Amino acid sequence: MKLAEALILRADCQKRVEQLRQRLAKSAQIQEGEMPPENPQTLLAELETAVSELTGLIQRINRTNSQTELEAGIIISDALARRDTLVLKRSVYESLMRAASHSQNRYSRTEIKVLSTVNVAEIQSQIDRMARDYRELDTQIQAANWNTELLD
């Protein structure tokens, strides 16, 4: 099985666990004299199976990511960390740009003038570079996912 296939299965397992959470919540309480929509014990057993499968997939994915090189000297785990921090950093820069480019209307010369403390154009340029870096890195990671066999 390819790493990308395992990632798809992991997402499916996570969705299944969330569905079981919701179904358990609906079956957790009933009015006296009524039956629950589903047997909570059966749902809990399904949950245990789904979580066990999810644990195994996550372990194998992590093992594969930590032992597979994306390119010389860079393992997939390190590339994933870089990609995640690029998203975070870009988000902060976008917040800064929005805050700095927010204009205030002055109705008279006596009102306080508000000025930006950063160069909005330069911040936008940095955001664009981060977006490009993210796309390039994500493409490399996706390619590796489809070319890498999942380790046991």
TrEMBL record:
<protein>
    <recommendedName>
        <fullName>Septicolysin</fullName>
    </recommendedName>
</protein>
<dbReference type="InterPro" id="IPR047741">
    <property type="entry name" value="DIP1984-like"/>
</dbReference>
<feature type="coiled-coil region">
    <location>
        <begin position="3"/>
        <end position="64"/>
    </location>
</feature>
<keyword id="KW-0175">Coiled coil</keyword>
<dbReference type="Pfam" id="PF20935">
    <property type="entry name" value="DUF6847"/>
</dbReference>
